[in-house]
Task: structure prediction
Amino acid sequence: MKAYKLSENVIKYSFGNPISTEAVVALGQEILKDNLDYFKVEMVNGLKFNYKMLPDAIVLGLGQNQRGINKRGGIYEAFCSDDPLHTPDKKSLYGAHNFLVIEGKENFGVFVDYPGKVIFDVGFTHKDYLEITLEEQDADIYIIKGDKPLQIVREFLNIIGESYAPPKWAFGYQQSRWSYATAQAVCKIGDKFIENKIPCDAIYLDIDYMERFKDFTVDNDAFPNFKEFVEEMKVKGFRLIPIIDAGVKIEKHYEVYEEGVQKEYFCSDEEGKPFVAAVWPGRCHFPDFLNPKARQWFGLKYKTLTDAGIEGFWNDMNEPAIFYTDRGLAAAIDAVKKAENENLDIYSYFALNDKFNSMSNNLKDYKSFYHNMNGRRINHYKVHNLYGYNMTRSAGEGLKEINSNKRFLLFSRASYIGMHRYSGIWTGDNHSWWEHILLNIKMMPSLNMCGFLYIGADTGGFSGASNNQLAIRWTQFSLFTPLFRNHSSMSSREQEPYSYDIETVNILRSAIELRYALVHYIYSEYMKAVINKDMYFKPLCFEYEDEVSKRIENQLLVGDSLMVTPIYEENSVGRYVYLPEDMLLWKAADYNNRVYEVINKGHHYINVDFQEVPIFIRKNKIIVLGKHSRNVETLNMSQLNVIAFVEDKANYVYYDDDGSSMDYKKGKYNMVSIYIEKQDEDYLINVDNTGNTKVNILYFEIVDGNGKIHKKTINI
Ligand code: MIG
Result:
């Protein structure tokens, strides 16, 4: 074991000869250390780390996973999985995010930087033990110290590098479905949004836009004159976002296939030939994203679509998902033949069933192909969790080469820590279940802890059918998530906001309008989190240290000033909330009509009608609000409503930039500093502005501890 010091509070311990994942960007200096802090290490058949938790310690993190914000009591397996049934017993979803924070008497974080399977047993087998198990002895373990969870997370975010920032229009509402399969269908969706006066920024193209599911092709019958069509839709106010799949169809004369084979850019099988497995297009090859040359080659293919005016992509099926291989298929067919004349009983019937079910995403298949990592031939199974990450990195690097100063929208299904520097993620195939709204709520801060800021779920649910209530309540939560997209599967009912009864349409429209009014705040908080390497969604216990806050799983802090308490139960028109301090409640329905109520610290039951979105402004905090528009580009950025809850003093930094270029990385952005101080019956207000803000008028609504509203207008 070798040890390296990365900063005052971060030490990396290298066991054996680890494969570099490039998750961490900070460099360290070698130091002398005999053993790992906190953990007992066992080295039999791999590596095992053991830590005894205090009975009341909480464990946070693990990004995209089931169960709570507090991960205690569960067992999790880091192994990127295409599993469309997110039931509570599932140990893995699409991402592998191996970072945890333990907050007990000793507070620390641990990042297990290992690209294969890792098991995190967080007091599941032995209630007070955190046990981390790896199948090999080569891994980098990072121990991060700090007094408080938030400080530990910030230290971690600091070593993994700055998060991706999408263009500003990607903070608008986005509409998807599998699939809007023709130009006419897409056009109709846009028209419906316009007709129903529902704001929207983007419409998605799922797999059917392609010619026979071949990446970087467009079906000319379904989308004649694609480039003109993209432009036409843009003029109407909508961007089109095509999907890109990991598998490349085997088809003679298909350029991507031919080139990939010729240049040896595909993963190889046992014999060194391109590995074959089937996905949408039937039999495919899989680009070797761990080979830097292949990565660059594939990334530049996005140019076929950017040349047609496309400005955003979603990368799918990159765990990678495998439907079947010839091996699995042959075994299943063989089993059928054998079963033909048999009297299938309880054992043989299920065994036959299993042969089919286990054809997809089979471990044997994952163990049967190889990567070329700078000349080293490496079995896929060992580096499985790097595949989606590097597919998306390929896209991110490619898009940068295509246009280095432009921000593209990009998000992925599979991921590993490190990918956050290139893109966001969406949380995959959820269901139209109330439980999945709650899961969505809990997952958001856990993902932020692991660096992923541009995140969101399929609002309304992907599979299953969403009734009007679920669509409403989910939309009312998602309007706070950076990625705000409604997506649904082929067989589900129509889920576009205008597809419901008129009352529901009106409520959904108001919720989406509220999102656009809040884009000023959301974008500002998001970009500050990027630049300061901070979180956007936080669990309550990251800001409040009382014992109750530690246990709150169904309320979140959004940015610096807000707490949200979403409704996630059917037929519910209210809920219990916990306030760690006095806060100002605004039940936003029509955002132009604002009524506030001061709610004191403690437990309360609040009524929340279907059209209402409960928003709490924290004590001595400020939010900014604009006016909605039909899309982000047409938002009025010159006027701000400033809503503040001030008992003594508060300040807020409003961030804005051009929203489309990389100039923010060079410090080209505007900050408007707002300072409010209570002085007897009046307020001192100070607005300071650096840079070149578009804001020229601010309408203040300052509420004091007694609920008294004080209004003032300031021109700058
Ligand atoms: O296995 O492209 O998660 O969002 O609509 C299904 C079709 C493949 C899975 C994605 C989903 C997408 C669907 N894809």
In short: The two ends are 59 Å apart (CA to CA).
